[in-house]
């Protein structure tokens, strides 16, 4: 399909989501009611829940993806070989992408839109928590594609919640070209252990914010509270706060978190400054809470922060708050995470906020794609060689 045809199909899919909003929200309400009965956590229910505003954002994100430049056919590199051939490296789709995910109905549409725009087919396998939401969303999206002349089978949803279906996807070498898991540690670990298909992994988001001695106190409080509490259930939420022992406004920083409704788990210095805090265990430094809980440690300057992050970061997003440009530059150079921020909330770790449209996830590995995976991350490339009769001696 041409660039224009793919864009038109996506716009039609976005319109179908808006037209079917009542049915989609009713299906989501069934899932939320079942989730409450099953005792899902507040964070998981927040991920699961749709409302008119969230659904409108999802539909708008499809239009945003439609408006992005088509990566397929984009020329990455051009050169002349020593023998005189013209060599061009161009982007091409990966093929069939399998997405295995939990309790986030927005992933159904984000994945579908990004795969269609990048010329890939997609097989979606959502979690049982969102089964009715996913079916309604995929149905509307596929109806929109079909109305614009695209085969709706380009976006498929596994019709069963049987766990054996996941095993079948992981073993589908030759049928599925790439698996992308989005979910908790156990899901990602299973996919990585059992897959016979290449995997693009999104591990947990143990995101750190380091308040340097030279941080502006007002800026630090605003960023820290936002990074933790704006939405606690997203992967870019701050889970560990590191504070320079020489930072002068630590007590007010801790109080702002507690007064915002956050449980603070800290080391001995934290407990001395904030009587409402509780003692942190060794496990806290390696925990993705996805809730209004934060672990806090005082560290010996930039060296101490770098050492702590090296031991405990999941490689997702880590941030420094400082007015010292030298410290900021060293932090960005030495922290080995997919996203490294200076003076900004880790909640900005999002493909939409990066101007990439929707995202398929935040890749925390080092190969193929890293950070927010959007259109370019869903392509590979091939070399096109044009000669004039050359033969190799």
Question: Which short descriptors sum up this protein?
Answer:
2 domains, globular, Aldehyde Dehydrogenase, Chain A, domain 1, 393 residues, alpha/beta, Aldehyde Dehydrogenase, Chain A, domain 2, 16 strands
Describe the 3D structure.
This protein has 393 residues and is an alpha/beta fold. It folds into two domains: 3-200 and 373-385, Aldehyde Dehydrogenase, Chain A, domain 1 (3-Layer(aba) Sandwich); 207-348, 3-Layer(aba) Sandwich (Aldehyde Dehydrogenase, Chain A, domain 2), CATH 3.40.309.10. The protein contains 13 helices and 16 strands. The chain has helices at 3-19, 21-38, 42-48, 52-67, 105-117, 131-147, 164-170, 185-194, 217-229, 250-259, 268-273, 301-312, 325-334, and strands at residues 75-80, 86-93, 96-101, 121-125, 155-157, 178-182, 207-211, 238-244, 263-266, 278-279, 293-299, 317-321, 339-342, 362-363, 371-372, 379-386. Helix 2 (21-38) packs antiparallel against helix 6 (131-147), helix 4 (52-67) packs parallel to helix 5 and helix 5 (105-117) runs parallel beside helix 6. The longest helix is centred in the N-terminal third of the chain and has 18 residues, at 21-38. 47% of the residues are buried.
């Amino acid at each position: 399909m041409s660039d224009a045809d793919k864009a038109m199909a996506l716009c039609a899919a976005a319109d179908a989501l808006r037209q079917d909003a009542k049915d989609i929200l009713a299906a989501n309400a069934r899932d939320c009611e079942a989730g409450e009965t099953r005792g899902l956590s507040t964070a998981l229910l927040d991920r699961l829940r749709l409302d008119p505003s969230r659904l409108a954002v999802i539909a708008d994100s499809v239009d945003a993806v439609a408006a992005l430049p088509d990566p397929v056919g984009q020329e990455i590199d051009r050169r002349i070989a020593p023998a005189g051939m013209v060599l061009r490296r161009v982007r091409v789709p990966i093929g069939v992408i399998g997405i295995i995910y939990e309790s986030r109905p927005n992933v159904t549409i984000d994945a579908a839109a990004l795969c269609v725009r990048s010329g890939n087919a997609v097989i979606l396998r959502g979690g049982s928590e969102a089964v009715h939401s996913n079916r309604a969303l995929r149905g509307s999206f596929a109806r929109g594609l079909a109305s614009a002349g695209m085969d709706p089978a380009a976006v498929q949803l596994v019709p069963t919640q049987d766990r054996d279906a996941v095993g079948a996807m992981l073993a589908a070498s030759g049928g599925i070209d790439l698996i992308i898991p989005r979910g908790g540690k156990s899901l990602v670990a299973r996919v990585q252990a059992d897959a016979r298909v290449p995997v693009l992994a999104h591990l947990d988001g143990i995101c750190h914010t380091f308040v340097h001695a030279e941080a502006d106190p007002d800026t630090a409080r605003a960023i820290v509270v936002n990074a933790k509490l704006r939405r606690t259930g997203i992967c870019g939420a701050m889970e560990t706060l590191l504070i320079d022992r020489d930072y002068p406004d630590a007590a007010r920083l801790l109080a702002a978190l507690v007064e915002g409704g956050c449980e603070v788990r800290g080391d001995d210095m934290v407990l001395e400054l904030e009587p409402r805090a509780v003692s942190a265990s060794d496990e806290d430094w390696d925990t993705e809470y996805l809730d209004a809980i934060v672990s806090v440690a005082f560290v010996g300057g930039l060296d101490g922060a770098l050492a702590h992050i090296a031991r405990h970061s999941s490689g997702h997003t880590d941030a420094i708050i400082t007015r010292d440009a030298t410290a900021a530059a060293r932090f960005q150079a030495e922290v080995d995470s997919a996203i490294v921020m200076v003076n900004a909330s880790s909640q900005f770790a999002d493909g939409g906020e990066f101007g990439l449209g929707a995202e398929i996830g935040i890749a925390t590995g080092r190969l193929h794609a890293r950070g927010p995976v959007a259109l370019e991350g869903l392509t590979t490339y091939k070399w096109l060689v044009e000669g004039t009769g050359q033969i190799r001696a």
